[in-house]
Amino acid sequence: MLIKGRYWSLFVVCTIIMMMITGCARQSDGLTPTLVAPQKQEKALKLLNASAEAMYNHAKGGNYEEARIELDRFSDLLTTVSYQGITTLEGVNALTQTVVAARRIYNGIQISDKDALVAATQLRLIADALTHKNNPMWLEYEQVLKNDADQLREMTSQSNDVGSLASLQRLHNHYLIIQPSIIITRDISLVEKVDSLFSFLTAELSKGKVNYSTVSQGLEHLHIVLNDMFESSDSQTIVPIMIQQNNVIWTVFIASVIISVLFYVAWRRYREL
What we know:
Strand content: under 5%
Low-confidence stretches: 1-9, 15-35, 233-254
Number of strands: 0
Oligomer: single chain
Number of helices: 10
């Protein structure tokens, strides 16, 4: 039964690849690209959200087989959504990489409860971010991260090496849950600043003798960037990076990113058989 399930999953992945290649070939032959109708796009996003929510509920209840099945459905639904005007190439890459990571977790021999729930949460937030880019659900994590940051500042004010590093790790772990969704709805440069500051602070707090003056300066910068990240004004919202005339180029780029990831998943599954 397990082998049969693996072959079926491999068949589904390869089918998706062939469908996308065929679609790109038709456009590259000079056929006029057709923009996805708003009603069709809305339906596709609703189905994607419903699938992500179902997977999250299964994972929360410890029903990992059902969650894995829903993950396969979620992966199939990704190819029915038009990403033009919703996110950037970096956003699509974050989406596909998160799906690949979730597959590794749910196809593992032993599934970690924590990892399974985190993966399901990430996909739930991603699906919501694609639908509500102006007011995504991940913004609700603002207070969680602020509480973590306050705890970190408290530890550093006491020059507590162990407590400071543990608090930073807790803050970083919570940030990683929403990072893919942030990439989808915010400018990538903002995410790169946050990632850089986390790397800097981790390096500083891992030294044998911590310079808390330097750490304090880093925390101030992190505080500013996190505030910018949670700013929900229109200026922080992703806008389409391709105009309608470049619709063919956009479609080919998006398809190539997803296809490369799906080929990788198919290859890994083939090696496991």
